[in-house]
Design a protein that fits this description.
With 244 residues, this protein is mainly α. It has 2 domains: 182 residues, Rossmann fold (3-Layer(aba) Sandwich); 55 residues. It has 10 helices and 3 strands. A 3-stranded parallel β-sheet has the order 1-2-3, covered by helices on one side. Helix 5 packs across helix 8 and helix 6 crosses helix 7. The protein is globular, with a radius of gyration of 25 Å. The N and C termini lie far apart (83 Å).
Amino acid sequence: MEVLHLSMPRTGTVSMQKALAILGIRLYHGGGTTLKRPSDTVRWMQAAKAKFNNQGPRFQLADWDQLLGDFGAAKVILIQRDAASWAGSFRGAFGRLHDWRTVLIAQLDRWSLRPYRGMMLFVADNFFEGSPMRKSKESLEARYDEYYSFVRSITPADQLLEYQMGSGWEPLCSFLGKPIPKQPFPHANDRRSHSEKFNRTANVAVTKWSVLCLGSIAQAWALLYYRHAVISWALALCQLAVGN
C-alpha cells in the first residue's frame, strides 16, 4: 500500500481517487470497493464494532493487512477544506442514506447495499456520537477539526501531505515522487454532480427492482393461473371418465 488517503468524505476524495489512478496507484476506495465486495463490508463492520462497542477482538496488523495490504510505510494524504463548507456538504451527502429510494433498494438488495448502508450508519453514529443528521453544524465542524488533528499527531511530517484542492499536480507528484501527467488534474463529484449522479443511480435501481418485482409477480400469477387451468382440466377429465 503506497498511499493512505485519510481525508473526510466530501473534501474532494473522488477527484483525488481519479488523480491517484492516473498516477498508476492501485486503489481501494471505501464505497466503491465494499459495494462490489460485500465480504469486505462484513470485515469493516467487525472492525467498527470492535472499536466502538468492544464487540470481538480489536483488529491487529494482520487483520488490516488482509484488507489493505502492508501499509506501514505508506504516505498519508489529507485534503483540506473549510470546516463550515464541509459540514453542509457532508450532511447533504449523508442524507442520501435516508432517501426513500436508498432505503427501499437496501431492503431488496440484502447482499450488497443493505450491509453497506448499515455499516455506514453504524460508523457515522459512533464517530459523531449520534446521527450526523441530528447534530448541529458546529459539532460536525468540531469533529472534523478533531479528526484532522488526530491524523496529524500520529503521522510523521515527512509522510504527510496536506493538499488543497485546486493546487494541481505539482504538490501531489512531488510528494509521491511521480512525474507530472500531461492531462489536467481531475475534478469530479461536486455537490451538484453528486446529487445528479445519485438521482440517476437511484432511479435506475428503483426501475430495475420494480421490473424484477413485477416480473416475479407476473411469473407467480402465471404459475397460479396455469396450475388452476391444469387442475380444472384434470377434474373435467375425471368427470368425463366417471360419466362414461
